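Any chance you could type out a protein's amino acid sequence plus the matching backbone structure tokens because I've never seen that pairing?

——
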Amino acid sequence: MNDNQQLLDVLTREGVLVAVNVRYWRARKKLDAQDVGLDPDDVTERLISLGHKRLLPREALAQFALIESRAHAVVDAATFPFLGGIGRFLPNRKLRETTVRLHELEAEFAKARRSFARRYETLRKSAVAEWREAASKLVRDPARVVAAIEAGFPSADGLDRYFGFQTSLFQIRVPESLEPELVAEGDRQALVEARREAAQRASSQIAEGVDAFVRDAVASLREQTATLCEEMLASMREAKSGVHQKTLNRLVDFIDRFKQLNFAGDAELEAQLDRARRELLSRTAVEYRDSATARRRLDAGIRDLADEARRLAASDATRIVERFGQMGVRKITFAA
């Protein structure tokens, strides 16, 4: 087994790919020149903008937009982009927390959908009335515009197909050859051969990309550490009353989050964060505000952590990648 395939095997055991898809009716209608009583030949896009127009006020769908944003934020905070963004890698240690939170958001989405369905006819009638009033002031034939707007509203019975909240979990797996029985007899040999070659290429690309993925994941957490420290230093400089507990809690929360996301086993950064917890987070914000000496130590400690994280982010992560790959060898040896 080559090193890249070994990495892929370990990665398969350490997490899954996750995708969340939130769909809701966007309440937009594309208006053409004819819809507003204009000759298409007379319309110049440099001067006149038609395109998609909002059918409902923004606030009517604001709850769906908020839930969608939160769902993607939950996934982004717990995952790493996998192989150029074809998926998001979710470490096992974050799996339960993430799926529970997504389930909660799905329940919120369902509640918002039911509420919107109950108000839909009222919202539609109100919006059409607003469009009728606006069109009467803007075009010579407002009835044509209103008719186009009304046509953009789906029936109340057909609303459900525009809404959906789906969380999908995928196991990382390289493609295999096409099963012969799935191909017509006449084309079987040629298609199976083409599929086999495509599967081999895809398998090689995935295996080769795993090394870069693990390196990028390690570098990302190191860079996030440095960025957080710099933000904490800026917050402490700007705060009128000195150190806030909220600022210290950000580092506490980050250390806990790092331990859940550190699937690659970055022992160097973990040691630095454990040291910061012991030496910098054993005092409260009040204790720091009461001691200038302690504040200077806190400032220096966070600055040192930022510098070390930046240095680590720029360093070669080969040893971490190799240790990560060896996890599979050790497990196989122990099992034997």
In short: The longest strand covers residues 15-23. The radius of gyration is 28 Å. DSSP finds ten helices and six strands in the chain.
